[in-house]
Amino acid sequence: MKKPAPLLVYTVLRLLAFLVPLALMWFFFPIFREFWWLAAIFAALIGASISLIFLRAPLSNASTRIHERRAGRPVAGQADADIEDAAIDGRTDDTDRA
Question: pTM surpassing 0.90?
């Protein structure tokens, strides 16, 4: 069985860290049904705290995976820069000879 992508795992866990406290506040505290924006703020604070404490390993895995993917790709402008460098070096050699 293939392992799920680390970024997907981290994203789902972060969403759960926000949505579960929001749902608990919404259903068990009637005052938050009226002040939904306050429930969202508290849920965001609780979710951020949960993710800082418990989700360090998934964050590390996701960022490592992103770094590996970025390191494997050539830089977009590198081919153009190489051609320009070759043209400049060729021109420099011509001017040095004259």
Answer: no
The residues near 29 (Cβ < 8 Å, ≥ 6 apart) are 39
| Structure tokens, 50 | 């949960």
What is the structure's pLDDT at 19?
A: 97
Residue with tokens 């060729």: 90
What would the two tokens of residue 9 be? Answer: 């795992």
- Measured distance CA(29)–CA(32) in Å, rounded: 6
Residues 27-83 have pLDDT tens digits of: 999 999 999 999 999 999 999 999 999 999 999 999 999 888 888 776 666 677 777
Task: Map tokens 């949505």 to a residue.
Answer: 19
Per the CB < 8 A criterion, the answer to whether 43 and 18 are in contact is yes
Q: What span, in angstroms and rounded, lies between the C-alpha atoms of 35 and 18?
A: 17
Angle between helices 36-54 and 56-72 (to 10 degrees): 80
Q: Say which residue the tokens 């390993």 belong to.
A: 57
